[in-house]
Amino acid sequence: MAVVVVTDSSASLPAGLVAELGVLAVPLHVLVDDREIREGIDDCDIDYGSSTVTTSGASPGDLKAVYERAWELSEGDGVVAVHISRQLSGTWEAGRQAIRDMDAGDRVRLVDSLSAGLGTGLPVLAAARRARGGAVLDVVYDAAVAAAARGRAFIVVNRTEQLRRGGRLSTAAAFFGTELVTKPILQIVEGRLELREKARTRSKAFAKLIAAVVDAAGEDGAAVAVQHLGAEESANTIAAQLRDLIPGIRELIVAEFGPTLGVHLGMGAVGALVVPGGCG
User: Fold this and answer.
1) Cβ neighbours of residue 89 under 8 Å, at least 6 residues apart?
2) Which has the least CB within 10 A, 37, 137, 142, 226?
3) How far apart, in whole angstroms, are the C-alpha atoms of residue 251 and residue 228?
């Protein structure tokens, strides 16, 4: 058959790409009052500003069920599972437990994307395209690991309060969230979400975001993604500028953040993610 690639719903990949490449996605969860909402499966209106809305990763049981399905579909060729950074979610650790409970030896491999959102999705694409081309397990796995290592992610948020409340950002950064006259620019470094710099206005923050992505992209072509939560116009404008500024850009995806990331980033968040060299 062929190696099958698995990810989680936080990867935010467009449904058409997921179907085309045969990627399987495990839903993460949003907890609203007494309801557990499966991202990408259940419909529900979410108040992204509420302090009572929380998220949870996939359980070992959830992951094992999908890994076993992928294993069967691969007919023994193997599975590569690429998940949100283990520094930001317990999903990777749950995946490791799920694999220990399976009888597949080292034919089910786990990859920490070192990122989130399409920062996870782009390494998934790199792996899935190799798999679709008939590559063996080692090649598919190495493609995901290499893309994750090259990837960079930058995010502009209106406030950092929700990130700090959810434990995704150091409390040492508290002043960024309380100064209404500044806009924080975040970056993901080795899987951790850190403050990069601040700007006086949203437009200046976007300019810094664009400059960071262009610098990270290099000149040999790159895969780029722009994500947003309730900021489609800004995301499209940034995407157009990146297309013009990055030499030989190979791929550009624009998408919304899913609920499990949106709960922590807040309305108005815009992120840009880049893999130098592309994901082809």
Assistant:
1) 10, 28, 57, 83, 116
2) 142
3) 18
90 backbone dihedrals φ, ψ, rounded to 5°: -85, 5
The angle at the Cα of 264, spanning 234 to 34, to the nearest 5 degrees, equals 125
| pLDDT, greater one: 267 or 167 | 267
Q: Hey, how many other C-beta atoms are within 10 angstroms of the C-beta on 136? A: 13
pTM to 2 decimals? 0.92
| pLDDT confidence of residue 54 | 86
109, amino acid identity: R
Answer yes or no: are the C-beta atoms of 84 and 10 closer than 8 Å.
yes
Which residues neighbour 178 within 8 Å (Cβ) at sequence distance 6 or greater?
A: 161
Cα–Cα distance between 213 and 153 in angstroms, integer? 8
**From the CB of residue 84, how many other CB atoms can be counted at a distance below 10 Å?**
29
pLDDT for 49: 78
Say if CB 34 and CB 273 are below 8 A apart: no
Determine the Cα–Cα distance for residues 132 and 86; give it in Å rounded to an integer.
27
How does residue 35 score in pLDDT terms, banded at 50, 70 and 90?
confident
Measured distance CA(202)–CA(193) in Å, rounded: 20
Longest dimension (CA), the chain: 57
Write b or e for each residue in 249-280: b if 16 or more Cβ atoms lie within 10 A of its Cβ, otherwise e. Answer: bbeebbbbbbbbbbbbbbbbbbbbbbbbbbbe
Q: Are 140 and 14 in contact (CB under 8 A)?
A: no
